[in-house]
Amino acid sequence: MEQTSTPQSGADQKPVPRPSESTGTIVVTGAAGAIGSAVANAFLDRGYAVIGIDVQSVVDVRPSTYRHVVADVRELDELRDVAASLADTPLRHVVGVAGGALPEEVVANDVDDLELGVFRRSLDLNLVSQYATVRAFLPSLRTAPSGSDRSITAISSLNALLGMDMPAYSAAKAGLIGMVRVLARMLGPEAIRVNAVAPGTVRTPRTERIWREDPGHFERLEAQAPLGRLTTSAEVGRAVCSLALDLTAVTGQVLVVDSGQSALWKY
Length: 267
Prior knowledge:
Shape: globular
Helix content: 40-55%
């Protein structure tokens, strides 16, 4: 998620588009980013209405039943304003994409280079915001018709499993996996599934900016991947969509989408 625009309340946004009875409404945080917009488009392609949330207002999604809300996912009150604006619209699935590595951490080559304040900011952006999202939208998930499948999906990272780099980012994404497993147990009796998707390296405009001082970064990672390429945003979006809509017996799990990076990863 890019953090350059001024957060605004979503309470004054237009009404949520009404989905057909056979589908439902999805919330996607971080919808202005490459992965977030890919997730939103994947659900739109399946006939769902999507509410996208981000501090950025420019979104690369196809129109249809999409509504964008500018809000800061780190602020529970702002997220609750968005949830309140849903009125009587029950949610089917919530996907937490917002987050990302901080540029200050990417350039930290040693523990002494990583300031404590940066570490805390990364935890706030990548972990605490996901819990705030759950707290804000869980009441709406609970209003879905009895028997309907509902889920929460958090975007973690291959860093959480391999410790590839960036200790704060890796710690936050690993914390997400721990949170997902506990929430799956707590919400299972309500038939709400909770999972995580852990993408490998995805080349996006944001990651290209972050790694611009490391020439050949993506090419080296491509050469290590068994598929000979990196995973795309669209592939992550389709994986998230399948986990939410098709894999209805899966909960408390981590789906790795990495073009095989984890099989051959080396430092």
